[in-house]
């Protein structure tokens, strides 16, 4: 829109210049008794060429000012960033268990089915119990969250995490120095994510080597007006 306004203003200015020059030529010719032997058509052609050059130079100015900004430039930077990102491949996981802090109510539920999230079969899953209130720190929340603790066969840099689960689940990716930390403060948050349309992909920049990765669920999916739970079918750690 800014460029279009500049072009309209430039065209209007050039038209005004042409009109003034034509009027001046006509008046000078009339006052001097038409002493200029150049035909009027050629004079008008020369005036038009000058006006065209003026319009071109004025229209170029806003285009130059707009270079390097806007969606086009940003998209180019993002494409370059994605192209420069290192390729990732699946990391081997030795064990998966459900986990929660020692101070949390209840227990780390359904730990026996936790390995279902790394079996490559989307028809199997791990699920939480069903709650009447959402996770969190409010007075109605039974617990702040629950997680899945992954132990890698060898310590590595986790650069990406892919999750297939119920929609609307919110989670954090955390690194731990132990498979059984006593509190959430003993882990380090790397990134956060939300499952949308059944999947979520989280990319981790500048990842440090870790042996234990926690997928910490902070918000359950809603399965009814007063029923909340989370079901995860697959989790893949890539590095």
- Lateral arrangement of strands in the main beta sheet: 1-3-8-5-6
Q: What's the pLDDT, averaged over the residues?
A: 79
Largest sheet: 5 strands, antiparallel
The rounded distance between the terminal residues' Cα atoms is 45 Å
Helical fraction equals: 25-40%
- Number of helices, counting only DSSP H or I runs of 4 residues or more: 3
Tell the overall outline.
globular
Compute the number of strand runs: 11
- Which spans have pLDDT < 50 for at least 5 consecutive residues? 30-35, 59-81
Rg is: 34 Å
Query: What amount of the residues lies in strands?
Result: 25-35%
What is the H/E string?
A: HHHEEEEEEEEEEE
Structural class: alpha+beta
Describe the structure.
The chain is built from 3 helices and 11 strands; from the N terminus they run αααβββββββββββ. The protein is of the alpha+beta class and 239 residues long. It has a 5-stranded antiparallel beta sheet with strand order 1-3-8-5-6, with no helix packed on it. α1 (2-32) packs antiparallel against α2 (40-66). Residues 30-35 and 59-81 have low confidence and may be disordered.
